[in-house]
């Protein structure tokens, strides 16, 4: 039976009733929050007036202590209440205009009554009867809404499975306290509401999808068993969206034990961070930590090296094809990303326990105090059963002790005397006071000239030695750079380490390239993680045990080596890896390439893989066109939202290309599209396109340094457009000249799948084979005449 007049009437009046109650509660809370706030200010201001301070006797001291503690407890209780009430107020303010988006009627087996469950972004109770007027979308019972159609239904409650019958599933679009749309749905989440959500224009910020979460996505969001959750999903299938709602879900479910800062999201680039940063606050939750893998590498290695970022690497891959030794670098990138290389580096550590360590000499003012050879001899004099890290610690201790002897040897040297003479009165005074402090209880006067000189000499020497001590304490005397270099310079060592694994092609060129770069204190992107890993396994892995959940978006861009590294970095965390193999644009092997390796990271029994095949971002026409570009694309299921077919426009000259694109942008703007991206293949093509087009139209160039992006016309390299979306995409030049090699296929696919509503491809010359091989009825084609 459809929705009747009576239903409309009842539902509308319920919305009014609930919003009135929320409004009332908001008013109450506003007063309460104001009052608690002034209480807190008062307590802070008069804190010391309210405590009795008396330290005459032991009893007085105890009493004073309790008095201060009592006052501090009152203050912290008020502050807690303030924070709680202010947070509730914020939630309710968010709820008041649209208190819910769904309803299910559910009768639990064994119960007489059917309950009406209204679902919104947070829960709200009727204060008098203490019944839920709105349930939080993350409550166990709310999963019925996402997982079932009317009929028999079950959900997992904390105490076990609950079974029953769902007699109704209703969806609402409520704006300004009024129902705008309402329908009963037979499918899990009705297409009407989804259609509404997907037809909107894109935004500079991602939106939450709680009202329309699909059943498969709900499996990702509510999965709390797997140690490793792998999500393989087509472009636009909602991987990032599911990940963010999952964060919100986990924060709700484990609210007593889990804080937002115990979750980390690794994003593809800084701009993406800003794109997703509003979703959680919109849901009333704090943002998790967000970072990029590159940021971490920079943080750990940036002081020693110029660390190449992944964008510089990909720019090389795309632009240096005709340069000498290009293929060798590609082979090197692939090998250094592999688990074979990871195993090699791990075995290398064992080898170093027996021989091969390289040290820097300990130098003072360019003079060698302890030679590298002496350190090495000392190192291998230790019992071989002592672990490498322990031996490094022992060496550290030994070096520090040797420095103490060194101090004695310098006491009467000329440089020390000169330094003492140069001490000004203030320094002299400070030195004297410091000596008094550190030598407390000892008989010190500055009357005795010899003693004074000795004391000052020691101080002067110690001060000079401070950076060297720090250097030693940080184990910098181990020459990790030389150790890493050895892997590429010592053929015998390499043969011993590689075991049965295959030697990469062009190995000798790869070695030369690696060594040359290291000599310039520069680390290629492919070397950064292995280098850091070697350092970590020698000095003891720096782990982060506070983090409980790690989310890796665009997981296909991480190598198996990087994944293994991340696992060690966060030993107590569960991992959610979201990716699409068809968007793996880097030269290294993608961790998703071999589906069997990922689950082995934590063991198959702790891993689960969920596949998303339905694509929500783009219109049916765009999906039908783009899915033909990739193997297995026929599995991708478009959502039934229609739009224009992608249009391919051929031009003969660059002038025609630019005038065509300018006219296109003007037309798209007239059609109401606000976010338009001109996607280029590389950063250099983007810079050229921008330089030419900005003379004729207002636009903005996105580079790897761009921290945020706005709703406007952008020129952007394809690899930076990862993860984001636009109303309309213009492919700057989709000619065969630009996109024809195997590795360019995924880049082209990634670029085209950024479009929500319109996809316009320009080709300067012959069209790319990735277009040509698509069925001709999936796109329209026209040729633009040269401008006269
Ligand atoms: N259940 C849903 N309800 C409404 N919108 C959805 C839903 N799932 C996905 N979307 C929308 O589809 C678009 C693509 O989602 P998202 O960016 O999460 O996909 P993705 O799989 O991470 O894409 P890509 O791999 O191409 O970057 C977004 O606009 C998102 O809001």
UniProtKB/TrEMBL annotation:
ATP binds at residues 233-240. This is RNA polymerase recycling motor HelD. The gene is helD. Residues 212-619 form the UvrD-like helicase ATP-binding domain. It holds the Pfam family UvrD-helicase. It comes from Alicyclobacillus fodiniaquatilis. InterPro entries: DNA_helicase_UvrD/REP, HelD_bacillota, P-loop_NTPase, UvrD-like_ATP-bd, UvrD-like_helicase_C. Keywords: ATP-binding, Coiled coil, Helicase, Hydrolase, Nucleotide-binding. The keyword Transcription regulation does not apply. Residues 19-46 form a coiled coil.
